[in-house]
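User: Please predict structures.

Assistant: First:
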Amino acid sequence: MRRLDKAMQGFFRRVKAGQKTGYPRFRGVAWFDTVEFPKDGDGCRWDSTPHDPVRRVRLQGTGHVRVHQHRSVKGRVKTVRVKREGRRWYVILACDVPAEPLPATGAVTGIDVGVTHFLTTSEGVHMANPRHGRRNTDALADAQRALKAFPRNQRSAKYRRAVEKVATLHRKVRGQRTDHAHKTALATVRAYDVIAHERLSIANMVRAPKPKPDAATPGGFLPNGAARQGRAEPKHSRRRLGVFLGILAHKAESAGRLLIPVDPATPPAPAPNAGT
């Protein structure tokens, strides 16, 4: 209901402003995988049975649900989200946690993220790219071929198991990449007080090159580098760099570190004159 109300409010706001209306479209039963409660106590309650050693969350219309808590909750719970991934359900908490500054190290570095090397510091230290997706390519390809063999109108139990297998492999790779990004960001924040990195525009990096029509051949096109760009830096690899920089920004703020994004178009500072 909150999503529907937000969509309708946006529709009427665009109508009054004379903008393109964009009437809200129908969303099927499997469209959303997440339900968000904007406030703890408004439709949900975290740790609803504090007298019981078993941790539970109470959801409106469902009741008390047991939670396998993997780490302690710090601070005050502000929002609660329930997320579904395949047959797994997760409770995601957003907490108001004060910053915990780390001891100063006095070290300053600049980092460059890429595909060949996941991270390179200004001291020349390279961190290898683990390439989790490449290690799981064969298993994922087999699972996707098995899924594609089913006709479109067939939604049997075997089809659902094939879908779940593909989703499980994707979830495994995503978890490995996220875990690696968190560990790398934490190690960087612990080692340096000031961290500078290039401000990346992920939208421009994943945008496909424009086609180049061939004037000599009607209906033909010249090579525009799209194939070479896809082989060198796949889109998911470049998006992963943006995810890592976002994680690094959160950890740096929590640890009291200074993170400086540098615009690549900014000209370098002039060298000081030796005669002055």
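Second:
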Amino acid sequence: MTTDSHAESGMRRRTVLTMAGAGALGALAGCLSPSTDDGSMAAGDEGGDNGSTDDNESADDTAESEGPLTDYPYTAPPQIVELADQGFESTLRTVPARHQLVTDEAKGGPIELPEVWAWQADDLEPSVPGPIYRVTEGETFDLHFENTEHNRSHTVHMHALGKEWKDDGVPSTTMMQVNPDENHTYTYEADVPGTHLYHCHFQTHNHLDMGMYGLVRVDPVDYEAPDREYFLTLREWDDRLHKQEAGGDADYDPAHRDPTLYTVNGRSAPSTFNPELGSPLVVSEGDRVRVHVVNAGYDNHAFHTHNHRFRVVEKDGGMIPAEQQHEMDVVDVAPAERYTLEFTADADPGIYPTHCHKVDHATNDGSYPGGMVTAIVYEEVMNTEEFAAVMDDAGFEG
């Protein structure tokens, strides 16, 4: 997800990956499978999944090779929700969906998860990751969670931000969960500037793996917007869980989790290079670029930039004093960690990979290259044959 302060170039764009300017964030505002778990367990009881899932009433017993496991609609890319533009409140739902890591049109595609549990904000399309909520430090906002579209219990847990005990979102300590057809309003204080993670904390080991995670950005009161700004969420996937939830012939055990798929903002390369669906870091010479990198997975990821050295300016909402910053080109991002990086687009204009340097994470089920890879792309080279070839692999027609 990106914002920037440059006018549109000739490339066709959508608001899900706007390049219209930081001031256009307001235009972005406003930017799944049934089971037999009916949520009727006692409040605070997080039992029920035990690393496995119940029978899916809507699942087809047909083998995967004979057709898709589900007919849910596909997810959309995450969008930014400017909370100030909608009265500091938003309605959030959990929706079953299908999710493509590599799209049909991209090289090596399609690669998809037959079932995810996506977050849906207001009237936006469901997405994995969920919507990026944006607010200014010092404000208070409400998330109205309506669990009306799913038959599992869920909660919302927000990292870093102030809230009352009952709004912490952990059933085993608050004795509060949102069961099917119930709702709850969570109230948060935007008291910690930075980029933070939110996720479901009911049966976290499975529900987070099913796609129930997103970001909230709290801008400091004196926030100075860069020329370009991006949000990148890293995650690895064991698709056996998703096939099992969809009723397929798969046996998943979280004690033996074995991810083979890796994503940036929910997409794997080459779809990550698609400017409509993926997450290319589009820059122009001389730009000051800010990248918020969040790990929503369970493995560490070594985030690396080619031919650009960055400084870490924020860590988990903590501002790094200038005298403690230094240039680097790889940062290890542990689960739930958040880093904000800044660099200047001062390299020879070109297309430079940005990826996890655990090289097996740059694969699609063992096929290299793929996975957790995107790129810094200079607008100055968008009319080259090389750029056209990258876009062809990404399934982007321009």
